[in-house]
Design goal:
The complex is a heterodimer of chains A (about 280) and B (about 1050).
Chain A: H1 3-11, H2 32-42, E1 46-49, H3 56-69, E2 76-80, H4 87-91, E3 92-97, E4 100-105, H5 107-114, E5 117-121, H6 130-138, E6 143-146, E7 151-154, E8 160-165, H7 178-181, E9 185-188, H8 194-205, H9 209-223, H10 236-247, H11 252-264, H12 268-281
Parallel strand pairs in A: 1-8, 1-9, 2-5, 5-8
Antiparallel strand pairs in A: 3-4, 6-7
Helix pairs in contact in A: 8-9, 8-10, 9-10, 9-12, 10-11, 11-12
Chain B: H1 6-18, H2 20-33, H3 39-54, H4 59-76, H5 79-95, H6 97-110, H7 119-129, H8 134-150, H9 156-172, H10 174-190, H11 193-209, H12 214-225, H13 232-247, H14 251-263, H15 267-283, H16 285-298, H17 304-320, H18 336-345, E1 349-350, H19 351-366, E2 371-374, H20 375-381, E3 392-393, E4 397-400, E5 403-404, H21 410-429, H22 441-446, H23 462-467, H24 473-495, H25 500-512, H26 522-534, H27 548-559, H28 568-592, H29 599-608, H30 639-655, H31 664-673, H32 684-707, E6 712-714, H33 720-723, E7 735-742, E8 747-759, H34 765-774, H35 776-787, E9 794-800, E10 805-806, H36 808-819, E11 829-834, E12 839-846, H37 858-861, H38 872-889, H39 894-912, E13 915-923, E14 929-935, H40 943-950, H41 960-972, E15 978-985, H42 1002-1017, E16 1020-1027, E17 1043-1047, H43 1052-1065
Parallel strand pairs in B: 2-4, 6-7, 8-14, 12-13, 12-15, 15-16, 16-17
Antiparallel strand pairs in B: 1-5, 3-4, 7-8, 9-11, 10-11, 13-14
Helix pairs in contact in B: 1-2, 1-3, 2-4, 3-4, 3-5, 4-5, 4-6, 5-6, 5-7, 6-8, 7-9, 8-9, 8-10, 9-10, 9-11, 10-12, 11-13, 12-14, 13-14, 13-15, 13-16, 14-16, 15-16, 15-17, 17-18, 19-21, 21-24, 24-26, 24-28, 26-27, 27-28, 28-29, 31-32, 34-40, 35-39, 35-43, 41-42
Classes of the chains: A alpha/beta (about 280), B alpha/beta (about 1050).
The structure holds adenosine-5'-triphosphate (ATP) and magnesium ion.
């Protein structure tokens, strides 16, 4: 590995890099803010469950900002998990430099040290051996063993582990183990209700009131189809995209078809049905 | 008395000699007419008589007959006529005096219809038939006797045809000819004059090509033609004559069917149909007949233009594919191509094509698990909905008509469907069925205490509680529908503005269908104005109009419903207020006419204005007077019935028991009070019957809903049934429709075959075990071969301690760790690893009767040992295989081999863990393809399955196509990467009407091949194994690109199966 990369890595340990300065736009849908805050204070790890685009990431960002504002240092380190993500990717590894070795902290180690919120997005995607790390970190000990260095670090007071997962499309084999699951406070996310979603769309896209309202209405109708062949309901994210297109001058029906209809399913018949919903709600 | 000349006396002696009475009759004739006859004439007459009587032994009968009529003939006509008739009789006498006698006795009647000059011609016609045998004589006599009758209807010339007809038939059966000749004239009575000749030709053709049908034709065709008023029928007859000549017998039935249909069309259209048929018949007369049979079913739903497009395309096809269009699928509507042309050329929209889209759409709108159902099904259920073409909902099912064709464009007709569906779904979404009775302010205010008070327990439904406030239930029910529908419309327009355009179109259409309001009685008129208002037409009634004040009031009330927040309860309030207003109008109209009837009586009179709403009226009589009071697109609103059904359903759900747990008292009470079911006047006994029946129907209906199984799974959307509007029968559960390939028309026959899934029969458990032990070594060998197949679907696995590749990332880590003094694990290898196999197999067994045949000569199939290679072990192997085949197979049937192979294969598949299904098929005819489930693909093998394998028996025919298609369907639903279908059969597809005749193989084979290709398209590997008896394998030819093996003894099976398996499952 190149030297400058390593240096960069080393530098990036600085807390400032993980701070969120601007208030992220977030509308609370239940008492999730309160729960998270209390969990943070009580050092109980948090599990965020919910379908894609339902605001989990946004929520964690918001909480990070909010906690900082309340003088509780809580920078945010996010890791998007994937199939080949191993424990050492999280903890850190040795690199070779001029016949010398240099230890580089992984994101979790960094978070533990600086007292950050460590957000492991889609944790079930990661390899099983990551649970070995998660377990000691999430019980009363709050310890991170670093095997390779033969060290064990105790977590900073500000450290909090947050996992997210989407129960919708996981197969049983990829589900979270109970021994893992039961170490967390769970916060369930679902799509916001029509009123809140209207506000979100309005805020994120800056479109017309009416358009936002209609899009939120459409979302409810489409989500009704979740049991009938639609794997996931339409996410707030997609609605925002539709709103942005409409704001840019594309006709609502066209915008909805290309953002919502086509992104949701490849099944022709389902597409047609959703299109009919769009055509009932928007005037062509 | 005058003395007779000597000659005459001599003659007399002659007569007397033959029969005494003749002399007597002769004397009388001479005596009576002597004065008008010359001597010469007498002599001629005497000679003629004499000649007749001398011609043969029984000629006296003829003479006697002659003398009997002589007097009348002479007086009515003249001597010449007398002689002419006699001469013809004389000639006939040469063949048979009996015929002559018969002719003479009939002659007077015959002469009514033909001239004396024509007698000779008549003779020559009769002569054709008359021969000396007694049968011919009898037949000729019948003809003579009938001819006076026949000649009333046909020309003498045409009598020739009758003779030919009689002759043709008598060649087959004398009796038959006699009977039909008897019936012919009766039949001709019915036939319109201008068609008689054609009809005779038709009958004659029938006698020629399909004589057994002649009797039917006389009995059934003639009465059908009876009321025919136009000559177009002759075109039809021409066509059928032609077809009969070409196609023979079978066309008769088609003709009768098409004739019936044809005559049901109106006259103007008949001509178009007939002349179109004529055009078709130039290319193919049989198709023309099919066309005539099909078309009457289409004319209700398609315009002439639509049909012309379809016709022209059809003529085109018929003309160009003349050779390979033998099956004429196009005009029979048995080709998907034809159906598509029809659908696409018309503006029609079909529920079947749009059902699932609309269903999802409604589920999306309402969030309720709604099913969309053809409304015919609902009427069929007999639970209170009875008008055809109806649109309605019971709260979780939406009923829609089969076909919509009210607009000129398909898109608009689809939108009409959408409007229908939206309105019903909106009822569910916006709470039309959630009414709870309350004494609202409105009701309290106008509800005076002089009416009876409501006690809660009295009514089975909330709606009935509300309706009980009113004397005229029909009126309040109507008003409630109007207000609630209007409310629903208003909300829908606000929530779904995209529908505005379609709604407007629909409302305008409905407005155009309204009856003229001007002549209506006041009450009817005000209601009409209200309805029109809800359809978007507002009137400015001028002040003098007696209704103007009321109208304005009503409109204000209705407008209060248009708010987003209004509920069903508001609709009830407004309906209540409308009722009060209309009540006032009726007082007004009676004041005017100085009538002193009391209001309530009067209101029930107004109820008479709405026959279709009035429960005392069966609604059919006056349909024209008031076709439909409410606009059709909003459908039938039955809040009372729906509430009741939902209530019953809830009770059942609570008790958690299906079946008839409907409280009879509650039901009786409901039925007596409800306004939404037409019962009519019933006696107590009748009412009880009705109520029981209703209870039955209702519980059946509810049960069906619980099961929620889709009874018929349609593979494709469009079927003949829907287009021709015929009621669909209810079929068993688990039956499936499939297309069939018609190689002649190069097209599918849509939804042609019905596959019925059945549980396989149970057999003897020991059988399976016995096969296992009989073939122990074979099975072992097979398993071993299959074990080799296990590796499959390689996947790269990382972080292994050993492997055939190195994972570079890990290796870097490894060295870094090592350098840092940490002892890392050696885990930087990676490997393309065998992961789980992902194969699904379906084994499809032919269980047709032909598999019952014993496989003989197995010994021959084991090659003779003639290439001695010097290796004794090969010799012994050969010897062993020969012996085993002798012992095990010598009395085996094809089906036994199939069964044993099944066991061998399933043992082997078990050992490698692939999922597999075992199916058998047989059946008879296209509507009854039996598909036996021995083991479903994801079902584990168990004793039950083993017994089912033992139970496999030859059953009936072999329609392979649909069985293959059904298997494809099963495999298609599996997620496996590799899908294999193995078909084991005797190679002889054969079924009733699977091909033109029983011996024709090509149709069946081509369909089977097509089905196998369909499998390929779906990514399924088809493979055929033929257990061949003696090379009667018809499938061989078609397998150029499909895996195929002949297996005649079970021992070679494992090897081949394993090979096959290796080839296809490891890709
Ligand atoms: N409650 C909310 N307040 C504000 N914005 C929201 C809210 N919920 C969702 N959003 C919007 O939806 C978008 C998607 O949300 P986010 O990315 O947080 O989803 P997620 O749950 O993390 O999805 P994934 O599981 O796909 O990562 C955000 O960009 C934000 O605009
Ligand atoms: Mg996210």
């Amino acid at each position: 590995m190149k030297k400058d990369i390593i240096e960069k890595n080393a530098q990036s340990i600085s807390v400032e890099n993980f701070k969120i300065d601007k208030e992220p736009f977030y509308i609370s849908t239940a008492d999730e803010i309160n729960i998270f805050e209390q969990a943070y204070i009580s050092k109980i790890p948090v599990l965020l469950k919910g379908p894609t685009g339902s605001g989990k990431t946004r929520f964690v960002e918001y909480m990070s900002w909010k906690l900082q504002k309340n003088k509780k240092s809580a920078p945010l380190i996010t890791v998007a998990c994937h199939e080949d993500l191993t424990a050492s990717d999280l903890v850190g590894r040795y690199l070779i430099e001029n016949q010398e070795t240099k230890w580089i902290d992984g994101p979790i180690t960094r978070a533990v040290k600086i007292g950050a919120i460590c957000y492991l997005d889609e944790i079930v995607e990661a390899r099983k051996d990551t649970t070995v790390l998660i377990h000691p970190l999430t019980d009363y000990r709050r310890l991170l063993p670093i095997d390779k260095k033969g060290e064990i670090i105790e977590a900073h007071d500000g450290f909090l582990l947050v996992l997210s997962y989407n129960p919708g499309y996981q197969s049983i084999t990829k589900d979270l183990k109970h021994s893992t699951r039961q170490r967390f406070v769970s916060i369930e996310f679902d799509y916001p209700n029509q009123e809140i979603e209207t506000k979100i769309i309005l805020n994120e896209s800056g479109c017309d009131d009416n358009i936002a309202e209609r899009l939120a209405q459409l979302a409810v109708k489409i989500r009704n189809l979740r049991e009938y062949g639609l794997a996931e309901g339409v996410s707030t994210r997609l609605l925002i995209y539709a709103a942005l297109l409409i704001k840019a001058g594309i006709s609502p029906i066209t915008a909805c078809i290309s953002t919502v209809v086509w992104s949701l399913t490849d099944e022709k018949e389902l597409q047609d049905s959703i299109e009919e919903l769009v055509r009932s709600i928007f005037v062509s | 008395m005058q003395v007779l000349p000597k000659r005459i006396i001599d003659l007399q002696i002659n007569f007397i000699a033959s029969a005494p009475s003749i002399g007597e009759e002769f004397n009388i004739f001479i005596t009576n007419h002597e004065q008008f006859l010359t001597d010469q004439e007498i002599i001629d007459f005497v000679n003629l008589c004499n000649h007749i009587s001398e011609s043969s032994l029984r000629a006296w009968e003829a003479t006697s007959a002659y003398l009997k009529i002589a007097s009348t003939l002479f007086t009515k006509y003249d001597f010449q006529t007398l002689m002419n008739v006699g001469k013809i009789a004389d000639k006939l006498c040469q063949d048979s005096p009996i015929i002559a006698a018969c002719f003479l006795l009939e002659s007077l009647r015959i002469l009514h219809f033909i001239s004396i000059k024509e007698l000779e011609k008549f003779y020559s016609i009769i002569k054709e038939l008359s021969h000396s045998g007694w049968k011919e004589i009898a037949l000729t006599n019948t003809l003579i006797i009938k001819s006076s009758n026949l000649l009333q209807y046909i020309k003498l010339e045409d009598l020739k045809t009758v003779v030919v007809f009689s002759k043709l038939l008598s060649e087959k059966s004398h009796e038959f000819a006699m009977n039909n000749l008897e019936n012919l004239s009766d039949a001709l009575v019915d036939i319109p004059e201008y068609s008689r000749k054609k009809y005779l030709d038709f009958i004659n053709t029938l006698a020629l090509v399909s004589w057994p049908d002649v009797g039917n034709a006389l009995g059934e065709v003639a009465p059908i033609l009876k009321n025919q008023k136009s000559k177009t029928i002759n075109i039809l007859l021409n066509i059928v004559i032609e077809v009969l000549h070409l196609e023979g017998r079978k066309s008769y039935e088609i003709f009768v069917a098409s004739l019936n249909n044809f005559l049901n069309i109106n006259d103007k259209f008949q001509y178009w149909v007939a002349s179109s048929a004529k055009k078709i018949s130039k290319h193919n007369p049989a198709s023309a007949l099919d066309f005539i049979e099909t078309i009457p079913n289409l004319i209700n739903n398609f315009s002439r233009d639509d049909l012309s497009l379809w016709l022209n395309e059809g003529i085109n096809i018929t003309a160009n594919r003349l050779k390979d269009n033998e099956d004429n699928a196009y005009f029979k509507l048995e080709s998907a191509f034809s159906l598509n042309i029809l659908y696409n050329s018309s503006s029609i929209e079909l529920l079947e094509r749009k059902k699932s889209i609309l269903q999802k759409y409604c589920r999306g709108l309402s969030g309720v698990d709604i099913s969309i159902i053809d409304s015919e099904d609902l009427i069929y259920k007999k639970i209170g909905w009875d008008s055809d073409d109806l649109i309605s909902t019971d709260g979780y099912r939406i009923y829609l008509p089969k076909i919509v064709n009210i607009f000129n464009f398909k898109k608009d007709n689809f939108n009409a469907y959408k409007v229908y569906a939206t309105h019903q779904s909106a009822r569910i979404e916006f709470g039309s069925f959630t009414y709870k009775f309350k004494f609202t302010k409105v009701i309290k205010k106008s509800y005076t205490s002089n009416k009876k008070l409501i006690t809660d327990s009295e009514f089975p439904t909330e709606i009935q509680k509300f309706f009980s406030l009113f004397e005229n239930k029909a009126l309040i029910s109507l008003l409630f529908s109007i207000t609630e529908d209007y409310r629903i419309d208003c909300i829908t327009m606000k929530k779904y503005p995209g529908l505005n355009h379609s709604y407007k179109m629909m409302k305008d259409y409905e407005l155009s269908q309204r009856l003229n309001v001007d002549r209506m009685p006041l009450i009817e008129m005000i209601i009409e104005y209200v309805i029109r208002f809800t359809l978007g037409k507002k009137y400015n009634l001028n002040r003098q109009h007696p209704l103007s004040v009321y109208y304005l009031k009503i409109i204000l009330l209705l407008e209060s419903l248009s708010s987003n927040k209004s509920s069903i309860s508001d609709s009830a309030d407004v309906a209540f207020q409308l009722y009060t207003i209309i009540d006032n109008i009726s007082t007004l109209s009676f004041k005017k006419s100085n009538n002193k009837l009391d209001i309530n009586k009067d209101l029930s009179d107004t109820a008479q204005l709405f026959p279709s709403l009035n429960s005392d009226n069966d609604g059919n009589n006056d349909k024209n007077a008031l076709p439909s009071v409410l606009p059709k697109f909003r459908g039938d609103f039955k809040p009372d019935l729906v509430e009741f059904i939902v209530k019953i359903k809830k009770n059942q759900d609570i008790k958690n028991e299906g079946g008839s747990s409907i409280d009879p008292e509650l039901l009786a009470q409901f039925l007596k009070n409800t306004n939404e079911i037409n019962i009519g006047e019933l006696t107590d006994g009748e009412f009880e019957d009705f109520s029981n029946l209703f209870a039955n129907n209702l519980s059946e209906y509810l049960e069906e809903n619980n099961q929620k199984s889709n009874a018929i799974k349609r593979v494709k959307n469009l079927s003949k049934d829907t287009l021709i509007n015929s009621p669909v029968a209810n079929h068993n559960n688990m039956s499936f429709l499939y297309h069939e390939w018609n190689f002649r028309s190069k097209d599918y026959k849509p939804d042609w075959c019905r596959v019925i899934e059945k549980d396989a029969d149970i057999g003897d458990f020991d059988y399976y075990e016995k096969v296992l032990s009989d073939h122990a070594s074979l099975i072992k060998e097979t398993k071993k071969k299959f074990e080799f197949l296990k590796p499959e679907a390689l996947k790269k696995e990382r972080r292994l301690e050993d492997g055939d590749d190195i994972d570079l990332d890990r290796l870097v880590d490894f060295f870094a760790d090592k350098l840092a003094g940490y002892t890392p694990e050696v885990d930087f290898y990676s490997k393309r690893n065998k992961s789980k196999r992902d194969v699904s197999v379906a084994l499809l067994l032919d269980m047709s009767a032909s598999t019952d045949e014993i496989i003989e000569g197995n010994i021959n199939t084991v090659t003779d040992y003639n290439q001695y290679s010097g290796d004794p072990s090969t010799y012994f192997r050969w010897l062993a295989s020969r012996d085993s085949s002798k012992n095990v197979n010598s009395f085996k049937r094809i089906i036994d081999i199939e069964k044993e192979s099944t066991i061998v294969l399933s043992e082997a598949l078990e050992s490698i863990g692939d999922s597999y299904g075992l199916f058998g098929f047989s059946g008879y005819g296209k509507d009854n393809v039996e598909f036996f489930i021995i083991k479903d693909i994801d079902e584990p093998i168990n004793d039950e399955v083993k017994k089912k394998i033992a139970g496999i028996q030859p059953v009936r025919s072999t329609r392979m196509g649909p069985a293959i298609r059904h298997t494809i369907n099963k495999l298609d639903s599996m997620n496996s990467k590799v899908k294999i279908m193995i078909l084991i059969s005797d190679g002889r597809p054969q079924d009733h009407e699977y091909g033109k005749e029983r011996t024709e193989k090509e149709y069946a084979i081509r369909d089977t091949r097509q089905a196998l290709l369909e499998a390929k398209h779906k990514g399924i590997v088809p493979f055929l194994i033929t257990v061949d008896k003696d090379g009667n394998d018809y499938l061989k030819d078609m397998c150029s690109d499909i895996g195929y093996e002949i297996v005649s003894d079970i021992d070679s099976l494992p090897e081949r199966l394993a090979n096959l398996y290796r080839n296809i499952s490891v890709k």
